[in-house]
Amino acid sequence: MEKLKQTTKKSWFKGDKVILLVTIFLSLVSIYAVYSSGYSAMRNHIFYILLGFVFMFFFYNLNYRILSMIAPFGLIVAVILLLITLIWGDGRSISIFGQSVQTLFLIGFLVLFYIAKILAIRLAHAEKLTRIDIIHLFAVVVVMCGLMAKSNASTAILLFISSLVLFFVGNMKVKYILVLLVMGIFAGGIYMTTGIGRGSTFKNRVHYYITQDNSAGYGTQMIRSKAAIARSGILPQGPGNGVIKRVLPESESDYVYATIFEEIGLVLGILIILAYLWLFYRAWLIARRSDGPFGLLIAIGVGFWFSVQALIHIGVNCELLPATGQTLPFISRGGAAMVFSGMAIGILLNIGKTAKLQEDPIGADNPE
What digits encode the pLDDT tens for the residues 14-31? Predict the structure, then answer.
């Protein structure tokens, strides 16, 4: 009886508590950032954060293997959603009942799930990818990233790199991965030189990063962002005491790290970076313990996506990378992005829970 009480007491959450705590920490930082900026729709922001946690726990309790079964359908949804976004939306979001819903993150995750599905089938049977498999996967990545780049090159690049990582983990031969990488670099060069979509903007941002020539104004945001970080001290200054953030565009999204760094100080600023690195490390541990190749690939894909997205955002804010427009996961103000991120973390927690129960069945439904 005593053993049953102890088991019940510990069984309320069987996922990775570190990932949960990291997500909570980053969400609290997000609330601080929006509050400090005097954002008028604070309630709306908190609503989306809470909604993200609702979806997180929903997917935490939903067996992730279901995603494997519906992954082909998910790719169809991703294609349709991307076309709707490009044709009837603004290229990044669509309007649903008067609310702007960002779709690119969901599209990216759906593509990664499909890639993981195809790779997992071969891994489960210890089979090599056929030439048809490789051509098929390459076509999916090229078409989806190509269409996505018309309005958001940085998210297309993030999806492209994440796909390469999954190919590597999925035992695709390195020579094929290099072929796709060369194709991506070549396509990126055409994208910048021809100015297709936002290609000219991307080209001007890269030009400023290389030459530091701000005559066209494409480096103003990065200059102010770096100044905000440089103004910060070791200890927090407190909410509302930032100065440069008041003239920094996109201070609650694209440059939110610089705006909060100016106020929270060096120690907490570094702690945020460590939180994202720790998130990827825990995702890697979950992948190692996963009970199948699909769980392994999804865990790596989700962990890599969030960590690299965060490092790109922080790198841009510190002027270590050209401007991209990438937001900071769980911190930048957003609606649908918060919800989709919560879904992805919920899936990651479910993979970890399943792996843990397989290793240690105590806490699962056990008649003893």
Answer: 888 999 999 999 999 998
